[in-house]
Amino acid sequence: MTAASASVVTIVKKSLGWSIALSVLMILAGFAAIVIPPAAGIAIAIFVGWLLIFSGVAHLVFGWHSRESGSALWEALLGILYLFTGGYLLLNPVVGLASLTLALAIYLVAEGILELILAFRLRPAIGWAWLLFDGVITLILAILIWRTWPSSTVWVIGTLVGISMLFGGIARLMLTLAARREISKLA
Predict the structure, then answer these.
(1) pLDDT value at residue 5
(2) Residue 73: its pLDDT value, please?
(3) Which has the closest alpha carbon to 49: 106, 107, 94?
(4) ∠ at Cα 131 (126, 136), nearest 5°?
(5) Which residues 6+ apart lie within 8 Å of 87 measured at CB?
(6) How many other C-beta atoms are found inside a 10 Å radius of the C-beta of residue 162?
(7) CA angle at residue 139 from 135 to 141, to 5 degrees?
(8) Of 136, 181, 153, 140, whose CA–CA distance to 13 is shortest?
(9) Averaged pLDDT for residues 171-178
(10) Residues 6+ apart with CB under 8 A from 131
(11) Whole-model pTM above 0.70?
């Protein structure tokens, strides 16, 4: 092994350690979000509120810089809408969480319908049934959220994000451990 490849292996080994640590943190955060979904949901509502605030400022700045093109008014209106919505989410995170939960249910209905349409369009192809299955599960989840809204507000967003973080952390950890095994073969 050359000196350059040895240093690359050393760098990769160090980054794998950090990747394992991040994976474990993601798994722990996922468990915490699943165990305490209201806190996770409110944190997400606050995060979305800040994202909207930053987006509103960006629209206002872009509108100011593009005032000669005639789009300044529309950019300013969009910026104000984003700022208002983000500010509302920050001031009322629980009510904002209810709105996000309803928006999620609507999104899942649309996604489920589109997946069903795509599944039937691909019907003779291999694997089309997986899209059908995904569409049905997505619609069932949307209906469950919709029928229990607004009481589902307390648990839906936090639980779903927690599940996503948990499985994301597990997937990252498994990939990192596989990479570490491959690197150890080289060393």
Answers:
(1) 55
(2) 83
(3) 94
(4) 140
(5) 49, 53
(6) 22
(7) 120
(8) 181
(9) 82
(10) 115, 116, 118, 119, 122
(11) no
